[in-house]
Amino acid sequence: MRLLARDTRLYGRAEGKFMSASKDIIASVEASLLEGASVHRVIEVRVTQAGDELVIGAKVDLSPDLTMNEVSVILLQAKRRVHRVAPDATAVFIEPDVWVDPNAVQPPTSAVVTLSYD
Questions:
Q1: Could you give the number of structural domains in the chain?
Q2: What CA–CA distance (Å, rounded) separates 52 from 62?
Q3: Alpha carbon 115 to chain centroid, angstroms
Q4: Is 118 a member of any domain?
Q5: What one-character DSSP code corresponds to residue 89?
Q6: For FRET with 92, which of 15, 43, 49, 74 sits at 20 to 30 Å CA-CA?
Q7: Tell me, what CATH number does 39's domain have?
C-alpha cells in the first residue's frame, strides 16, 4: 500500500501540536465538518500525503441518540463538505464518535453496577 512509502509525510496533530505547515488544510477540514448542525465537535483530523495521494481522516462527535441511517447520511454530507475544501483528497474517512470530557468526574463503579449481596 502506498501509504507505507518512505516519503510519507504525516500532517496532523501529535500531542496537541501541528507537525507541519498544513495548518490551513486542517483548519479548512475542521471548519467544513462543523458546518453540519449534527457534528458537535471535531475530535481529531489527520492528513497524510504519500506521493500523489492525499488521505484525510477525521473523528467527529455525534449525538448518541442518532440512528445508523442518520449517522450514515450525516457522514456522507460531511465527506462531501471535506471534498469541497480539499478537492485533491483521494480518500476521506470520517469516523463517528461520542466525545467524553477527559476532565469530567466519572461516577464510581458502584453507581453503575449492581453489587451482589451473597
A1: 1
A2: 32
A3: 37
A4: no
A5: -
A6: 15
A7: 3.30.70.1350
User: The C-alpha cell of 67 is what?
Assistant: 440512528
φ and ψ at residue 54, rounded to 5 degrees: -120, 115
Single out the residue of 50, 42, 40 nearest to residue 2, CA to CA: 50
pLDDT tens-digit map of 32-55 = 999 988 999 999 999 988 788 889
CA-to-CA dists, residue 108 to 38, 68, 105, 113, angstroms: 31, 30, 9, 9
Which of 55, 42, 59 shows the shortest CA–CA distance to 86?
55
The pTM of the full predicted model, rounded to 2 decimals, is: 0.69
Cβ atoms of 56 and 45 within 8 Å: the answer is yes
CA-to-CA distance for 75 and 96, rounded, in angstroms? 8
Where in the sequence is the domain holding 33, given as residue range(s)? 2-112
H helices of the chain, where? 23-34, 68-85, 109-112
Residue of 5, 7, 11 lying closest to 55 (CA atoms): 11
Instruction: Please state which of the ranges 70-74, 86-90, 104-108 shows the lowest mean pLDDT.
Output: 104-108
